[in-house]
User: Which sequence fits this backbone?
């Protein structure tokens, strides 16, 4: 045994060296008798991988000019394609070079333990993190990744889990994904179980599922069955798909109510640009198969909200106790349409310009302030959706409003709307609203009362009782609407007669 040990430990010393692509100092060098197996223990090396010779390395360790090199407890600086990597605690195990921790200078990445496997041409890392990275006008912060592998031959990377924060246009999105795969030739990224959270998008985290991005001059993003284009130079995002395709690609928590079963024809296209200035365009001509959405021509139940935000179930619809037919609502239809949705008779559920103005204003203000909803969109919101103000809900409203417009007449939609919306604190439906404020039915309201009642719809829970000042304000508004040709003159004549009669008394 003593002789064998002497043969193995033929010499031991410390030295510095320079072999072109690798140089540095070694604390301890030991070798076998023939000098074929060398152990390097401790020290600091600099490795220039771009200059490494292409020798055959099939022996049970790493070789230099036929010598098998074993490494222990070493710090290594790696220079590769312009990057500087610092590895601590480097050691070799068979055909692997492993380390206890690593750091890449640019971008600034730190990592835990990892290995390079010579046989499989792959790097593996337990974890890595990056504090900040700027890309395409966005700032990525606190990026963490787990279970990372990279194949130097196929130029493919896989990551088990990724979490980060992306800040864009002063908005911070929290992003998490499951398996991520990135490759070169083709330049492609596939992300599974992508989760995104931001109060603009939805009240809770959106589970987007699987996406694929092919990047070049124009990036092609596949979201479910939908394809979206991203132009990095102008930061323009656009897409055109069948309505059903868009709906099927929505996150599961957005496909609630009718969106889980609705069948649609037609296409929806959009374009969002950020440079040189924000732009937004939308075009949609969706048509629903009517038997795929709930029947609203009979009593139905929907969720209503009290002033404190508590929910309760309410029943309305033709034949229900509180239902008021459109023919018995007097001037309310005229008032509601003129104040809430002047284009109601002509649009198909949404107004492009209102959508555009809403998006751009919200982007400018840095928070969700405007909705741009039509009467049809408000109806869809009230009977099927939550009260949250988010992009996700606006998308839901867009498709559901077009479904309503496909299957119900304008009079039916307006009748449903008047019987569903809130006309004061806990006063749901036009019948309850008119009795609460004026102690008479909607058909008995004079024009000014009807217009006042319609004017409270944006903020029904915070409206004080009508007084002379508020009624006068509505009267002035009606005169302007008459001048603009939006309401008939006879409404003003009725108003003047009632005022004169009141003064005579």
Assistant:
């Amino acid at each position: 045994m003593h002789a064998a040990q002497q043969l193995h430990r033929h010499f031991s010393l410390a030295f510095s060296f320079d072999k072109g692509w690798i140089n540095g100092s070694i604390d301890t060098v030991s070798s076998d008798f023939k000098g074929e197996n060398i152990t390097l223990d401790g020290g600091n090396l600099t490795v220039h991988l771009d200059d490494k010779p292409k020798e055959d390395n099939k022996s049970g360790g790493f070789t230099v000019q036929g010598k098998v090199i074993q490494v222990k407890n070493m710090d290594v600086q790696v220079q590769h394609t312009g990057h500087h990597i610092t590895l601590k605690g480097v050691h070799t195990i068979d055909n692997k070079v492993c380390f206890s921790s690593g750091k890449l200078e640019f971008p600034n990445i730190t990592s835990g333990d990892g290995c390079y496997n010579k046989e499989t041409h792959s790097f593996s890392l337990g974890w890595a993190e990056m504090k900040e990275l700027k890309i395409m006008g966005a700032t990525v912060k606190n990026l963490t990744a787990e279970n990372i592998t990279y194949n130097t031959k196929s130029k493919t990377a896989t990551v088990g889990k990724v979490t980060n924060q992306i800040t864009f246009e002063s908005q911070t999105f929290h992003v998490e994904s499951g398996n991520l795969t990135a490759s070169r030739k083709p330049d492609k990224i596939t992300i599974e179980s992508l989760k995104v959270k931001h109060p603009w998008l939805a009240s809770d985290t959106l589970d987007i599922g699987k996406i694929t991005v092919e990047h070049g001059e124009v990036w092609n993003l596949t979201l479910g069955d939908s394809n979206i284009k991203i132009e990095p130079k102008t930061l323009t995002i656009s897409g055109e798909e069948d309505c059903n395709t868009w709906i099927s690609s929505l996150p599961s928590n957005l496909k609630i109510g009718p969106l889980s079963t609705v069948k649609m024809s037609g296409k929806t296209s959009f374009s969002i640009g950020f440079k040189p200035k924000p732009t937004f365009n939308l075009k949609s001509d969706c048509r629903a198969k009517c038997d795929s959405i709930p029947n609203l021509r009979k009593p139905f139940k929907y969720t209503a909200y009290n002033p404190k935000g508590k929910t309760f179930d309410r029943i309305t619809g033709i034949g229900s106790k509180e239902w008021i037919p459109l023919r018995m609502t007097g001037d309310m239809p005229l008032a509601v349409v003129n104040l809430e949705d002047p284009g109601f008779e002509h649009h198909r559920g949404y107004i492009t310009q209102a959508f555009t103005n809403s998006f751009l204003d919200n982007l400018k203000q840095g928070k969700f302030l405007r909705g741009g909803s039509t009467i049809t969109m408000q109806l869809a919101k009230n009977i099927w959706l939550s009260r949250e103000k988010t992009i996700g809900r606006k998308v839901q409203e867009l498709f559901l409003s077009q479904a309503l417009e496909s299957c119900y007449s304008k009079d039916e939609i307006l009748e449903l709307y008047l019987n569903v919306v809130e006309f004061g604190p806990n006063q749901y439906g036009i019948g309850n609203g008119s009795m609460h404020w004026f102690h008479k039915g909607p058909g008995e309201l004079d024009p000014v009362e009807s217009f006042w009642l319609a004017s409270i719809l944006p903020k029904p829970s915070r409206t004080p009782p009508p007084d002379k000042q508020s009624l006068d304000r509505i009267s002035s508004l009606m005169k302007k609407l008459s001048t603009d040709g939006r309401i008939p003159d006879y409404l003003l004549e009725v108003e003047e007669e009632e005022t004169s009669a009141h003064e005579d008394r």
Remarks:
- The first strand starts at residue 11 and ends at 18.
- Residues 1-10, 56-61, 499-505 have pLDDT under 50 and may be disordered.
- The radius of gyration is 35 Å.
- The longest helix spans residues 391-407.
